[in-house]
# Entry
Amino acid sequence: MRRNSVAAVVLAAALGVFGTWAGPPQRAAAARIVGIDELSPTRSALFVESPAMGRVIQVQVLHPVGGGERPSFYLLDGLDPGLKQSTWTNATDAEPFFADKNVNVVLPMGGQAGYYTDWQADDPRFGRYRWETFLTQELPPIIDATFAGSGADAIGGLSMGGIAAFVLAVRNPGRYHAIAGYSACPDLGIAQGAILFSIANRGGNPGNMWGPPGGPAWAEHDPALLADRLRGTMIYLSTGTGIPGPHETEIKPQLPENIFFGAPIEAGVDGCVTSFEQRLRGLNIPVHVDRSPVGTHSWSYWQDTLHASWPFVGSAIGA
# Structure
């Protein structure tokens, strides 16, 4: 999955033409809450009107029952995010796990194959994606004002969301005290072909995101090239090997595990995480890598690593 191999195939098969450059992202006007639903004592749904996105975005927040100032953990979904709730709350125990913890867990809804970034052009399939602007400029003041946020934030995600977490961190140095990537490949030189394919496979035009592969916008978003900007940030990465483990025998009707795809994907992620770890260590940037001898690209393992990562993430943001 290096830059020029899979990328060329994907472009020839699925791209056609690239989107038109829409200029650099502009600073967003103030977003506003247009509705709040209290889903449970520890989970609320915000409906946020986003000027950048040009629509209302639902964001669900896990929060303590009591008051008091607390940090926030922005937790991003995978390639096919939940629409009525995050897959983190649908497929893992995230809500009960965080119920007794002094933290806001921020779960944005939607954004299929969008990589939580600002796309250069509106897409016929997905519409307007300005996720970086929404997540880094519009949403944090709302979260802090509504849920007593302290301003000490972390960001994490699985697969697509994990890549995005690292991209957002290097593009906004110092914005996050901690980053967690669960089965994520933050090296765009390795992940590029898979990114292009995943967008095209969901019906989008990959060129509408960052333009042609190898173009300047790709370099401007690449955590491997911009890794020095992560200095001073707590970094957590987890990966399995693709070898099936204990969770493949579980019955999970809401989101079954998929060995056929999950095994080779995770094997590829494992190699990418190793490469990215070497890049960080070569720059003398500390990183905690949680490697399992087994495990596929599936939710039961991400629940395990969410638990394992929390002591690192929580301590970095003072939760």
